[in-house]
Design brief:
Layout (H helix, E strand, L loop, with lengths): L1 H31 L6 H17 L4 H24 L7 H23 L16 E2 L2 E2 L6 H23 L1 H11 L1 H6 L4 H23 L11 H14 L4 H21 L5 H15 L14
Antiparallel strand pairs: 1-2
Length: 294
């Protein structure tokens, strides 16, 4: 029973990280129908910026804020400079561009920061709670609670933005029909840039949350990106709520595989889940079957 509780709590904590990556992918997909394969590389790069600030004598929280701000600016800059020229072109163009961006970002990180593994501090203790003699594992630690709270808060703020603010209404209109939105006076280009900026911010948040559990190196977010993409597919690429639920499902299932089957199988299991979802439910659990929801 104790092992089951530990694996479940750990899976929820991991799932929140996958959900954050999935949420960043959903934000871009809803607005532009582009899958940003460079999202993991962007998160890795902002984590490097944070560790430079921390190593230079800044606090963890200063590095945290600067990483989020860097993700915001990086997302906006890449959309304006690199991605926007692919608008109106064949979809494969955007795919190739984002894959090229990933290679460029990871190569630049290796040149600037080196390729060796670097440890990364956590916001809080990673020691799990205990109830009497019952240890709940790292999934109940203050860091795990902070991870869950951060992702849920980000998702909640985005929901409020989209539903209750004029900017959110313009973003939804641009995503639903760019042509109609332009006729109504919406600056669709700005809304697209804002969507990429917000996705960059959420990606940076995911990088700051996952990196303390791993080492930081140029390819450190590659496997996390694949699992985040799987979470987004499980929930439906149009659904922010689906990304959260998909991340939780994936995180718990993979932790059960790790605990009960083998510690070297989670990546294979994640790939298998992705293939099964694409085969039997390619639209995801929360996707509309009739009309696109915004």
């Amino acid at each position: 029973m104790q092992e089951f509780v530990e694996l479940t709590l750990g899976g929820i904590s991991d799932g929140m990280i996958y959900a954050a990556v999935g949420l960043s992918l959903v934000l871009i997909w809803r607005g532009t129908r582009v899958l940003n394969y460079a999202q993991g590389g962007m998160a890795m790069f902002t984590s490097y910026i944070a560790i430079v600030v921390i190593d230079a004598g800044g606090s963890y929280w200063l590095g945290f804020v600067i990483a989020l701000a860097s993700g915001l600016l990086l997302g906006a800059a890449l959309e304006r400079v690199v991605v926007r020229p692919t608008a109106g072109k064949p979809p494969l163009n955007a795919v190739i561009v984002t894959i090229g961006l990933l290679i460029l970002i990871e190569g630049a990180a290796g040149i600037i920061y080196g390729s060796k593994n670097r440890s990364f501090p956590a916001a809080y203790s990673i020691v799990g709670a205990k109830v009497g003699n019952f240890a709940l594992g790292p999934g109940s630690s203050p860091t795990a609670i902070f991870t869950a709270a951060s992702v849920l808060a980000a998702a909640g703020l985005l929901a409020l933005l989209f539903r209750f603010t004029p900017v959110g209404l313009r973003m939804r209109a641009s995503a639903f029909s760019a042509t109609v939105a332009q006729l109504m006076g919406v600056r669709v280009g700005r809304m697209t840039t804002l969507g990429w900026a917000l996705a960059g911010l959420i990606g940076a948040l995911a990088g700051m949350l996952v990196t303390p559990q791993t080492f930081l190196y140029p390819n450190s977010m590659d496997s996390i990106f694949v699992l985040g993409f799987t979470a987004a597919v499980i929930g439906g690429l149009d659904s922010p709520i689906g990304a959260i639920v998909g991340g939780l499902i994936l995180g718990v299932l993979l932790n059960y595989v790790t605990g009960y089957v083998g510690s070297n199988l989670p990546e294979l299991a994640g790939l298998a889940i992705l293939v099964l979802v694409l085969m039997f439910r390619p639209s995801g659990l929360f996707a509309s079957t009739a009309t696109r929801q915004v």
